[in-house]
Amino acid sequence: MLLDLAExxxxxxxALKEIAERQKISKQYLEQIITIIxxxxxxxxxxxxQGGYMLAKDPSKIxxxxxxRITEGSLSSTACLESDINDCEISDSCKTLYIWQELxxxxxxxxxxxxxxxxxxxxxxxQIDNYVI
Length: 133
Prior knowledge:
This protein is mainly alpha-helical. It is 47% helix and 6% strand. The protein has six helices and two strands, in the order αααββααα. It has helices at residues 2-7, 16-23, 27-37, 64-72, 97-111, 116-129, and strands at residues 43-46, 52-55. A hairpin with a 5-residue loop joins β1 (43-46) and β2.
C-alpha cells in the first residue's frame, strides 16, 4: 500500500479502493493496515468526495525499518532482545547472546537504510533491464 502511494505521490489523495484494485489486495485488509499506520505520521488522510490517503513525507524519507516497527513491533531475532532491557534469566551466561545482538544490529542497519524510493528505483531498474526483442 505504501509503495503504491509512493508510486502515485503526485496524484493527490488516493482512495483505498484504487490501491486495492491496483495491488490486488482486499479493501478490508487495507483498512486494517490503515488502522495500524494511521497514527505514525507517515500518512495524510482526507475524508469526503476527494478523500483518500497520501504519504505525509517524500518516499525518500520513509525507511522500511520504521514501517516494519510500526506494523510488526520489534525486529528482534530472539524474544530476549525485543525490549531495551534484557530480562532473560540466563543472559549473563548466554554464550550466543552476542550473535543475536549483532544479527539484530545488521538487520536494523539494513532495514533503516532502505527507503520506499529505493524500492521503487530498484524495481524500475529491473524493468528496464527486463526487455525482450
